[in-house]
Amino acid sequence: MTPVVQFHYRVDPLLFFPDLDLAGLDPGAWYLRPPYCEDGFLVVDIGAFVVRTPERTLLVDAGVGNGKARPNACFDRRADEWLVAPGEIDTVVFTHLHVDHVGFATRFDGSAWVPAFPDARHLTTAAELEYWTGTDPDGFRERLGDYVGDSVLPLRAAGLLDVVAPDHRICPEVRLLPAPGHTPGNVCVEVVSEGRRAVFAGDMVHHPLQLARPSLSTDFCVHGACATHSREALLRDVADTDTLLFPAHFPDAVPGRVVTDPAGGYRYEPVTR
C-alpha cells in the first residue's frame, strides 16, 4: 500500500466546519497541534493510495488532477508531479465523486479529456453516479466546478466506468464497505490479507478533529446526520483493534490506529512503518 500525496493543503477550520465553536476548543488539544494544524489552519492533504494484491493493482481515489479549471484557487490548473504510471493500474476505486478524488482519472490529450488509465476499470456506486449527474448538486457544482464533466463523464463515454454495489467484492482481499452520508453513495475500501486488516476511509474522517468529535460533519457533506452515523459506525468498528485506518486527507497520508480516548471520542496513533 503506497500513499501518493499530490499536494499539502491548508484550510480555515470554519470552511470545513462552519458550525464549529472555535472558542470552545482547547488550543493545546492533540488534534490542533502539528502536524494536524499549522498557524490556525487545518492540514488537509490531497492525494490517493496504490494498493497491490496478487491479482490486482488498485488506485483508491485520484486527487484533484492537473490542468483543470476550478473555482478553488488551490485546485485551479495545477501542474503537480504524479507518480502513478498509467499502465500500472487495472482498477480505480472512487470512494466518492468529489472534485479532490477524481481529478487524475482523466488527462487532456490536446483536444479533449480522456481516461488517464485506459486499461483500468473505474468503480463507483449507482447512488453516487445518479446524484452527481443529476440536478440536485447544482450548488456544489458552483462551489467546486464542473469536475464531473471533465473527470467522470469521459470515463463513462469510454466504457470504463462500472457501477457496482456498495458492498462489492473486487478481489479476494478487497471489498467495498457502504458508508453513505458524506455523499449518497460513499464507500470505504477494506483490505484483508494474511490476517491483517486495513480500511481506506476516504472522507469519513477529513481531519483528526472528527475523531475527537465524531458527530462533527463537514460543510461538504450532502447528508450531515447520515455522515455522522456512518462515521460513528466506522470508528466503533476499528477502534481498539489492530485495523489500520487510511484517512484520505491526514498529513502525508500516514495511516494509524484508532483508540478510545477516556476523555471522550477517539485518538489517532500514527503508524509510520
Describe the structure.
It contains 8 helices and 18 strands. It has helices at residues 13-16, 99-102, 126-132, 138-144, 147-151, 153-157, 209-212, 224-238; strands at 2-7, 10-11, 37-38, 41-43, 46-52, 57-60, 91-93, 106-108, 113-115, 121-125, 161-164, 169-171, 174-178, 187-193, 196-202, 244-247, 256-260, 266-270. It has one domain (2-270): Metallo-beta-lactamase, Chain A. It is an alpha+beta fold and 273 residues long. A hairpin with a 2-residue loop joins β3 and β4 (41-43).
Short description:
By secondary structure, the protein is an alpha+beta fold.
| CATH class category | Alpha Beta
Mean pLDDT: 94
Number of domains: 1
- Order of strands in the sheet with most strands: 1-5-6-7-10-11
> How far do the termini sit from each other?
11 Å
**Which regions are unreliable across 5 or more consecutive residues at pLDDT < 50?**
none
What CATH architecture do you see? 4-Layer Sandwich
- CATH level-3 fold name: Metallo-beta-lactamase, Chain A
Q: What string gives the helices and strands in order?
A: EEHEEEEEHEEEHHHHEEEEEHHEEE
Question: Structural class of the secondary structure composition?
Answer: alpha+beta
Using the alpha-carbon principal axes, give the shape. globular
The portion of residues forming beta strands comes to 25-35%
| Gyration radius, rounded | 18 Å
Count of helical segments?
8
Helix content: 10-25%
Q: What would CATH call the homologous superfamily? A: Ribonuclease Z/Hydroxyacylglutathione hydrolase-like
Main sheet: strands, sense, barrel: 6 strands, mixed
Tally of strands: 18
